[in-house]
Records
---
Amino acid sequence: MKVVDHLKNANGKTLFTIEILPPLKGENIKTLFSNIDPLMEFKPPFIDVTYHREEYVYRKKEGGLLEKLSTRKRPGTVGICAAIQNHYKVDTVPHIICGGFNREETENALIDLHFLGVDNVLVLQGDAIKSESKFVAEPDGHKYASELLDQVVKMNKGLYLDDELEHAAPTDFCIGVAGYPEKHFNAPNLKTDMKYLKLKVDMGAEYIVTQMFFDNSKYFDFVDKCREAGITVPIIPGIKPLTAKAQLTVLPKIFNIDLPEELTEEADKCTDNKSLKEVGIEWCIKQSRELMKKGVPTLHYYTMGKSDPIYRIAKELF
């Protein structure tokens, strides 16, 4: 079933949904299932599965020459989506990214997902690889999420890269895109960011999932600006609890977000990660309750491979 249909069928009730990471290369999928199992108590109608592009390592060869090798530490998004749907009978939302794919590879991945009965995709640009200062598209790949979105929309119309195909079967993906309450780090300002978000909705995006935020007012302001811009699709809040002291500096740097003063003041009092985790969970419960009162379509939790904090939060709310 499509994400938008799940939201519609909820009849105004706030749902519980999660995003998971594929296991590290070499790990068993049972580890992933052991993290998902406790959260099934709260009946998530769909589960997002992230995609992680290639990274590069350099290995020294004889004579001192360096060999550049491509590697992925978290492969298997398509297979994991199939496994989750088979194991839990729950819909999945694979992330489809620009980085690491050319257009042909993107088309083949979408065909595989369509054959597996996956009805939803979240279209993203993806991150730059660590060895590069900015995002670089693959040869014959997509530079922007809007370009990738256009390819998915065309496939939904039966338009494939080979324009000589006759009677090509259209796919039927429900397409989500990302929204940034504190603006995308590449955008010069929120108004410009909103312009491109509106473009993606006009092109065919059916819902928006936000970057994580810790100040609900940022989300509410973002929704208001979207509605003023004529964006009427559902806007799903993405939420993550703080679980380690290092995140106080890492999260703002990586995700270009601010942490509220009240939260950081409480976090600064913590002497270890255990006490910080308790502060993070309490803050997230408070956030979630306020969002639920405002009638958000679903509380979408970024698990980051750790189900225990999310379980404790959901237990208080659902």
---
Amino acid sequence: MLEVINLQKKFDKFIVFDNVSFNLNKGSILGLIGINGAGKSTLLRTIAGVYEPNDGKVLFEGKITYDNLKAKQDIFFLPDDLINRMWITPNDLKNVYEINYPHFSTDKWNELIKKFDIKEKSRIYNFSKGMKRRVFVALAISSNAKLILFDEAFDGLDPLARLEMKEELIKYVEEKEASVIISSHSLRELEDFCDSYAILDNHKLKSFGEMDDAIDKFFKIQVAYEKLPPEDFFKNLNPRYYNIEGRVVTIVIADDYDEKLKVIKDSRPILIDELPMNFEDFFIYSVKGEEK
């Protein structure tokens, strides 16, 4: 459905990202993750066809997205910097998007503005950031686009609004076999919502895969000793992370888990406890790398 192939984007001589490649299938929700300045917003704009790549290409259903009106009619992009023109109303926006999206559903729009409590004839500059997001989520779903791109989609939304948005997007993806790419600073929000992930770091695609598989890549263990082994013992395990506090060591292992666990057990600890991992842990240890 979506093919991102050896993509590079730079402004003047500054490379935002380079050699980014991944595929996204129908009916998938991908979480795009990275620290501030990693290039998430620029990548979404490039996929949407707003920016022209300096190298590589973006194909959506076999069509290049940049400068391609036909392709863009099936792609909805919600940026982080929402429109704030004083005179415009949600109904005005609906009229504009009806023109640009030939399969726009007025019935769905009417259903969602009622559910999201959107006053369609009020001027949008009076809306909170969260309410503006509700407006654009309603527009995105009503557009019947096959690919929806959200930049910081949960920003400004209260817990109930986030839940409602997730429910509507999941239903939309299932019914339309559409796909969604969504960036968010809240990794816990993505963990229970996305089925796949992509991590941007240091101008590269650091990691890409299934959300469930990501959490299974790392193991966090807490070990207590009567007499602590030399620090080199833990370094030799090539951990992704370790921390020593008194006689208690927290260590994160990324590979050869069974073998390294046996080595730890042979060091005669008085306690070994495997700690739960979540996607936020995975992101931190993926980006930080090995920490001593």
---
Amino acid sequence: MADETTVPILPCRSIDEVEEFYLVLGFTRTFRQVRPNPYLALRREDLHLHFFGMPGFEPNDSYGSCVVTVPDTGALFQAFADGMRSAYGKLLISGIPRMTRPRKRKNAGDLAGFTVVDPGGNWIRIFPSAKAAEPEEPAPGRLAEALRNAVVIGDSHGDHRQAAKVLDGALARAQDPPNADLVEALLYRAELALTLADRERAGELLARVRELTLDAAERERLAGSLAGADDLERILSAG
């Protein structure tokens, strides 16, 4: 049998909170009821998410999660990010709700995924539907490998403090790493610092990124990451 469809039904504290958030991301409501039980259905093109309300539910304790595969994770991330910037004036990178940036996940075949944690505490894990053909990359250096490990710990498992420790140790040991590896590691560590409410540390890390001398090829390769640095700096300046 083909053309099956699976629709996750996820818990939340308030269908009002969930609806408001997903409308920002470009979803539309297809169904809503408050009695006898709160229930909400949302849709964005072929992406369907359903939610049921649970009075007293604590989003921080949620185990709700699902995997969504899409043709282009970068385009979807950009659409979600634009919605957040328009509604909130910034990306939401800490607390609940929040969104991670697309990064390759070593525990998912190096697919570049990102995660939306919605107001119900549900982790919507978004990955490409097929791995695009890419030139084979050289084996990662020590700093790049530490970053790969930190992404699994922080973005996949949500242990931001341990991910920060992994990167701090790797950055302290790094000796003349490639600029690309150093920028990626510093920016992810700055993001973790903001997630952990350490604004001073985030500022120091972003300053290190801006002090690096990058050639044209490096700037082109790191364009997406440097745009992320702009987002982090806007969050810092917003207070």
